Amino acid sequence: MHELSEAPKSIWRFAKWARTESQLPKKLPQFPSLKRSDTDHMTTTFEEKTEILRGKFFPPPPQADVSDIAGSFIPLAVSSNPRITEDEVKQAIRRVKADKAPGASGIPNRALQAGLAELTPVLTSLFNACVTHKYHPKQFKKAQTIVLRKPKKSDYTDPKAYRPIALLDTMGKALESIMAKRLSDIAETHRMLPNAQMEARRKRSVISALDLLIDQVHTVWGCGTKYVASMLSLDAAGAFDRVSHVRLLHTLKMKRTSSYIIEWTRSFLEDRETSLIFDGQTSDMREVNAGIPQGSLISPILFLFFNASLIEKCEALGIKIGVLGFVDDINILAYGRSTEETCRTLSKAHDACAEWARTHGATFAPEKYELTHFTRKPKRFDMTASIQIESSVIKPKPDVRVLGVQLDTKLRWGAHLRQIEANHATRMLALSRLGASTWEATFTKARQVYSAVVRSGIAFGASVWHQRGKKGELSGKERRLGTLQNQALRHVAGAFKRVNIETLEAETYTSSLHVHLNMLQDKATLHSRVDGRTQEARQACELIRARLTGVNRVIPRSPATKKIVLLNAFIREGAKIQSRRRRRTPSFTTVSTSDSIAITQYHKDQWNQRWEKYRERVADVNATPAQRSHLSNKTVKMRDGLQKAESTLATHIRTERIGLNAYLHSRNVPGTDSPRCGCGWSHQTAKHVLMHCPDWSHLRPRMLQDAGSSDYRIIVATTKSLRAVAKMMMETELLEQFRVARTLVL
């Protein structure tokens, strides 16, 4: 465990395990038996399981009604240069992670990257030949499909509890990457895809999608309390596996895609083969005649083209709805004067979706649909209004999960905060399993895991749900979330509970959580403005206002508008702070990089002001070494190279919250009758033991020599000296907590 915590890459693999799987029951040593869907028979042999999984992952070609394709008018294709350059090949190979699992050939990406100079001309010629002859090599179409468990499923005898991931040839993936980028570039340049499609596209993300949805809901509310919004979340069964090749190729033509891309895509889709790998065995190769492979770099953008007409069909209805697509997740937002009206509107929109599914061979699962009504005045509306779709009745829920964020009826975010708190307990396992206060992962490693795993989980989607306190005061939600960071940082630093959060943040050089959330929100707003998402959201909201009230009605500011007003103020203030420190005139620019730096500087200054105000409240005579320090990453650097026990002792000494008599007596710890040291001279504090106690005078000269100073303020502020004082403190054996760790350090 100690060696694992020191390995640069192993620490992240272990953290991922601790976060996602450590709280789950142990996996069975063998792949379990699988149930047949048509009988209660349980399969036990590898061959039987393979047939069941093949039927689940690679169903027969979908029966799409393509009768409308014959005789269709095909618009003129966009003209583009098909020649692939060496720069494109180099970028494609570099984009893929070096240690990604290889396909059937067994050639890893690391090998391609190592021989990039020699391979580039050869691969460039090969890829150009593929494009010229409209051919994707057969070897590149052979996949090894790994069978993976879907997390947190109750029954792993059900084939639906597994998902396929295709491992493809690394050279083939480089070609797919080039073609995917070209198709994406053409789509964005010529606006081939609906604005409401948010994933697998540049400058669009989960945050873009959520921002658009929330702004639309607030726009409905802003039109008057007599209006309500309702959202229906659709569920498509096996989306990638059921893509009709005929319909996809026709859609590419109708979208004016360059002909060489269409013909290469045709070859890419034909004659695919795959084997299944699970339970330590590999099946034979079988042909796959439908769908697009999950794991291919071009599959996401191909699916967006396939799915685009679903969004366009809904938008063309001209009714009071907005559509939001995120790969295969489709959410339809309806608005009107009553929930009964919005349910009827959603039902009409679903009829259009069903018609699309008939012509595209797609299958929806109404039993998995989710419905919710959005309003701040629930007593005005029938919040139980439901939708009848086929044999399923979709009843509304008080909150639904959309793209990883819990949306409640009033958008007060209570449900999401409860979800954060529930997930936080799981993520804390990624820290607790990495070690305790005196062993395993170092301070530096634990801090990295906290930032990448725990804090990122708390802050996910913060630009949407985070609500700032008024007049500089922390809101209730900010205080509530702050306790989660407090708990995690105590584990990272090995600090006692009595260390206040301001000191803990300074010692770990981790900004206050509310400052971090504010900064994330401002940067997300900046990116939306620069990337054009803000303008798209404004247009969508204007359409809602026009449909509900007419364009002349004055609407209160939406959350997006308020965030932009704040953003502009913060950018200017951050630029002023930078100019004062650099002693030059501030330059206000619209370049996003400069604005982003200004935002970072502004929020860093806010954190620094908070720390300095705290230090002013602490009398200098009573201040601990930690409280005397200015806000700086030096508090992190001074712990570099220290083992966990040493860095924990450094925290205890610098905060003066340490298991010696002076502190224990102040906390009324049983068995501590006096704060005085056993020598009788003074209170037993870290400074007394290290610098003055006669009982340890035989250890002191060596400590001072190793520390390189006799000034206590310097001794507790450098890596070299902290290692020396930690060693001396352990040698005294005054701290029971560190007696076992002493054998590792000394």
Key phrases:
30 helices; alpha+beta; five-stranded mixed beta sheet; four-stranded antiparallel beta sheet; 746 residues; globular; disordered N terminus
Descriptive overview:
The chain is of the alpha+beta class and 746 residues long. The strands form five sheets. Strands 3, 4, 6, 7 and 8 form a five-stranded mixed beta sheet that branches. The chain has a four-stranded antiparallel beta sheet with strand order 9-10-5-11. It has a two-stranded antiparallel ribbon with strand order 1-2. Strand 9 and strand 10 (329-336) form a beta hairpin. The longest helix is centred in the C-terminal third of the chain and has 26 residues, at 592-617. The model is unreliable at 1-5 and 580-591 (pLDDT under 50).
Give me the Rg, rounded. 31 Å
Low-confidence stretches: 1-5, 580-591
> Helix proportion of residues, in percent?
40-55%
The SS-based structural class is alpha+beta
Overall average pLDDT? 85
What is the terminal separation in angstroms?
A: 19 Å
Q: What is the count of DSSP helices, taking H or I runs of 4+ residues?
A: 30
Beta-strand segment tally: 15
Beta-strand fraction estimate: 5-15%
Shape: globular
Largest sheet: 5 strands, mixed
